[in-house]
Input
Amino acid sequence: MRTAVYPGTFDPLTNGHLDILDRAAALFDRVIIAVASNSNKETLFTLSERQEILRYELKDMKNVEVSSFSGLTVDFARQCGAVALIRGLRAMTDFEYEFQLALMNKKLAPDIETVFLMTKSENSFISSSAIKWAASLGGCISEFVPPNVEKAIMEKNK
Ligand code: COA
Output
């Protein structure tokens, strides 16, 4: 069984993440979403809220599990028996950061590959931060997130 770990902050899940996840789930037997508990980002949603959102949206995907981790991503991936880390790539601006992260992870765990999936063009300009920012100023975000995520963001903005 080939397992991949898809790590991230997921604050919150967006249609961009869902697209990457759909495609990763078709490539691997098992995909574990690893929600970072100690991401260096200040988050709008708590760790358990982020996981709850993911579990709700992904309940019909049989080979996808939601988990969380602290510490090194590669250590978590090893514990799961994963052979790969999944990362989505958007515009060129992601490349430098992702390249550095992938090389560092390769040094730390030569046996684990990073697999990059190109984001669909319609998602290439979105990010969790931009969506939260637009929502906080009253912008419509329904095109970028599932309805329940939109509702959860609206609740936070009340
Ligand atoms: N379409 C649209 N947007 C996307 C996307 C896609 N397909 N994929 C990611 N994004 C966005 C996210 O919404 C997020 O936006 P934000 O910056 O506004 O929040 C951004 O791209 C990147 O987020 P994400 O994919 O969640 O990654 P991250 O950079 O928040 O998470 C970790 C990084 C957790 C993987 C990384 O910090 C890590 O590995 N930490 C553990 C410590 C470690 O092992 N470090 C490496 C060795 S030093």
In short: The first helix runs from residue 15 to 27. Strands lie at 3-8, 30-36, 64-69, 84-89, 113-118. The pocket of coenzyme A is lined by residues 7-11, 14, 16-17, 19-20, 36, 39, 41, 72-73, 88, 90, 101, 104-105, 119, 123, 126-129 (CB under 6 Å). The radius of gyration is 15 Å.
